[in-house]
Design brief:
It is found in: Cell membrane. Keywords: Cell membrane, Membrane, Transmembrane, Transmembrane helix. Residues 278-303 are annotated as: Disordered. This is TMM8A factor. The protein is α+β, with helices and mostly antiparallel strands. The protein has 4 domains: 3-123 and 134-147, Jelly Rolls (Sandwich); 157-262, Jelly Rolls, CATH 2.60.120; 311-460, GOLD domain (Jelly Rolls), CATH 2.60.120; 505-700, Rhopdopsin 7-helix transmembrane proteins (Up-down Bundle). The chain is 25% helix and 33% strand. It contains 12 helices and 33 strands. The strands form 7 sheets. Strands 7, 22, 23, 24, 26, 29 and 31 form a 7-stranded mixed beta sheet that branches. A 6-stranded mixed beta sheet has the order 20-21-25-30-27-28. Strands 1, 2, 5, 9 and 11 form a 5-stranded antiparallel beta sheet that branches. α4 (505-517) runs antiparallel to α6 and α5 packs parallel to α11.
């Protein structure tokens, strides 16, 4: 045998603390056919700075679709199928890097996914630039060992192969055709050193994570070994591995054979399906002589006509797949949404999810039983949703299991007429919905009975669009797209349906009122600025108060939301007004000449607008203008002090009752903003920030100049006559 090794790698990604699925870093690999060994090299590393501490990295694996994980222990939506993912933990302690190997023998060919993340996020809101977070990196590499020209086991043809040594097992494969009901595998003989008695182990199927359904057959002695597989995966290669259990390093010759039992489908004719598809798209033309004759038969009549055929064991209903958008598919039944279901054979619907881009959403199957169509009150319609191959005997298995897949059961009856199933991240494969009528007193009771079930099946990025308190986000890893829900207002869970820590409506209203009405504390600062002839500063404060109020009214996570314009515009105007307010306040305190002050106002505002466009949340967008304005203010104060030969400002009352309280309020506000805000206390800590900053502005604004009088409206706006004095001087000519 000739083995070929191949190596696949992807670029490293920076890990994040987990709060929702978007924080998990996803890696997508494709395992080629005839792979007999898969080895993952997982490399996790962290920075060397003092801010880096011991950390645990969790890595999840899944075949066919991204892993469904739940690190926070939240609730999934009702009727959702949840199977725990296979995961391992990697600890980063004293070592800067951790390398871990994971081996998988006889892996299934196709898409494999790895998701890695750090523990739960602390929820603290960090200002960008105040602290340097530690960097944790993760990179997986994949090594595969592939067998070239793997022997093919032909159906019904015995094949003899040799096992060279116990360390080198034998690998063969067999192709499972469509509509296979049962596969029989038989090991007829086993010869070692001329003796027909030997011990071997046969492993059928490949490993898939998180669950593996390999079938193991141990054969010893000269007795024939055989194994039957119900509903093997259709139109796929099935890998078979034979291991020598003996200790002697001798050749072992084995003879094996595989056979299949077909399950022929019975359905309406191709002409009727084509006519139904044509009419559903264009509709029959009135007056067309062939319109009446080309209409599809009703579902019940078509099924009865199909039952006249001989040798079939299932009833197939034609289904059309309609691609609506990214990770959005609708399945439409050509014979109408109502499907006839019988007891003598299952009704089968094909749901194709094999494009490679369908595994990033949620498959939703909804069944609704028509009560009037079912004459037997105690009868039940049992349905199974499975991948790779359908469940051909729902009444016998009851647990919806096939040869290598555990399906998902559904049932409807007269007492419970509706059932729903949500498959989160369905694996890339051909999916099937099989339904059969079950009677409690035996199948003979309902041989002539018929039940009509309305089937609604579709693929959606996020179930129920993440609800009222969630946002469906489309995520991307290279060319692969998948969706996840980002929850708000304390809601959590896969589809934001877990209300364990949810905020009540009254709490949401309170948060909105606090964050918006706290901006009214700018009114005293505006009035002080107007009283002291600082009209430009008062205009900036008014601008800041307006946009901060409506930005926080639009930024709320719950139902108490009001957006007067685009969210991004409101956010930009709020950030711009906040930084410019600090800029003009400090320059006003500097007491520079008016022409210079207004030039600095304009230039600083333009520079701040540019820096906010580059990085809106950077700390230096606020600290840079503040520090530059403080330098100008200190230089101006030193100049005034040297010129007047005493401290500036000269009044001790100005320092004690205005400057020191204003500076104290400003420092407390910065401390609250930078170090105390979290996701839980944001609505009242940020409101405190609003109050403290607005109050500090009112204290820090300088008094008006002495030669200017306060606003005297009675003198400025008068309606009486005044005696005007003519100050013109007459010039006399000297002659």
């Amino acid at each position: 045998s000739l083995y070929v090794s191949e190596y696949f790698s992807q670029s490293a990604q920076r890990l994040s603390f987990y709060s929702w699925y978007g924080n998990a870093k996803l890696f997508h690999f494709h395992v080629p056919e005839d792979t007999v060994l898969l080895r993952w090299l997982l490399q996790a590393s962290r920075g060397r700075g003092p801010e880096c501490t011991n950390m645990e990295v969790t890595v999840h694996f899944r075949y066919g679709a991204p892993p469904v994980i739940n690190p926070l222990g939240t609730r999934f939506p009702a009727n959702a199928t949840v199977r725990p993912s296979y995961n391992i933990s990697m600890t980063l302690s004293s070592a800067v890097q951790n390398n871990t190997f994971v081996n998988v023998t006889t892996p299934a060919a196709g898409d494999w996914f790895i998701a890695a993340h750090l523990p739960e996020a602390a929820g603290r809101i960090e200002v960008k630039g105040f602290s340097t977070p530690c960097t944790y990196m993760f990179q997986p590499d994949m090594f595969v060992l592939r067998l070239v020209d793997m022997p093919v086991l032909e159906p019904g043809v015995a094949m003899t192969q040799t096992i060279v040594s116990p360390a080198k097992p034998l690998h063969v494969k067999v192709f499972v055709p469509k509509y296979t009901a049962t596969m029989w595998f038989e090991l007829r003989s086993c010869v070692a050193r001329g003796q027909k008695a030997c011990a071997v182990r046969v492993v059928l199927g490949s490993i898939t994570l998180p669950q593996s359904f390999q079938k193991i057959l141990t054969c010893s002695g000269n007795v024939n070994c055989n194994l039957g597989l119900d509903s093997p995966p259709w139109e796929k290669w099935l890998q078979i591995m034979v291991e020598n259990l003996g200790t002697a390093n001798a050749d072992v010759s084995v003879e094996m054979v595989a056979s299949f039992t077909a399950c022929k489908p019975g359905s309406t004719s191709s002409f009727l399906n084509f006519s139904s598809l044509n009419q559903s798209q264009t509709g029959p033309r009135p007056g067309d002589p062939g319109a009446a004759g080309s209409q599809a038969l009703p579902a019940g009549e078509a099924s009865r006509n199909a039952s006249d055929q001989h040798g079939f064991c299932l009833q197939s209903q034609p289904v059309v797949r309609e691609d609506l958008d990214v990770v959005s598919v609708r399945y439409r039944l050509l014979n109408g949404p109502s499907v006839p279901v019988y007891s003598i054979f299952p009704t089968l619907l094909f749901l194709g999810l094999n494009t490679g881009m369908d595994s990033g959403g949620s498959l939703v199957v909804n069944l609704l039983l028509n009560k009037t169509s079912l004459s037997l009150a105690n009868a039940t319609v049992l349905a199974c949703v499975s991948a790779a191959s359908p469940v051909l005997s729902p009444n016998a298995t009851r647990n919806c299991s096939t040869a290598f897949f555990q399906g998902y059961p559904l049932s409807v009856s007269t007492s419970s007429t509706e059932a729903m199933l949500i498959v989160l991240y369905p694996e890339t494969s051909d999916w099937f919905l099989s339904m059969q009528l079950i009677c409690p007193k035996g199948q003979g009771e309902c041989n002539k009975a018929e039940a009509k079930v309305t089937v609604l099946a579709y693929l959606t990025p996020c179930f129920n669009d993440c609800g009222l308190y969630g946002q469906c986000s489309l995520l991307r890893r290279h060319g692969y797209l998948y969706a996840g829900c980002s929850c708000k207002a304390g809601w959590s869970g896969w589809s934001c349906t877990d209300d364990t820590k949810a905020q009540s409506v009254s709490a949401q209203n309170l948060a909105t009122l606090l964050l918006t009405l706290s901006n009214l504390m700018f009114l005293p600062a505006i009035m002080v600025a107007v009283y002291r002839y600082c009209l430009v500063e008062a205009s900036v404060y008014t601008y800041t108060m307006f946009f901060s109020t409506f930005y926080h009214a639009c930024d709320q996570p719950g139902v108490a939301v009001l957006c007067i314009m685009d969210y991004d515009t409101l956010q930009y105007c709020d950030f711009l007004g906040s930084v410019v307010s600090i800029w003009v306040t400090i320059l006003c305190m500097a007491r520079v000449k008016k022409i210079l002050k207004y030039v600095l106002f304009l230039l600083g505002t333009l520079f701040i607008a540019m820096s906010l466009q580059l990085d809106r949340r950077g700390v230096w967008n606020m600290m840079g203008p503040c520090l530059f304005a403080l330098v100008i203010m200190i230089a101006a104060w030193v100049y005034h002090g040297v010129k007047r030969r005493h401290c500036y400002p000269s009044s001790w009352k100005r320092w004690v009752f205005y400057l020191l309280p204003g500076i104290t309020l400003a420092f407390i506000a910065i401390s609250v903003y930078a170090f105390m805000e979290t996701n839980e206390n944001y609505y009242y800590t940020h409101s405190i920030w609003h109050v403290l900053v607005a109050s500090s502005v009112a204290f820090l604004l300088p008094p008006r100049e002495k030669h200017k009088k306060p606003w005297a409206w009675s003198q400025k706006l008068t309606c009486r006559y005044q005696i005007c004095q003519n100050d013109r001087e007459e010039l006399y000519a000297v002659t």
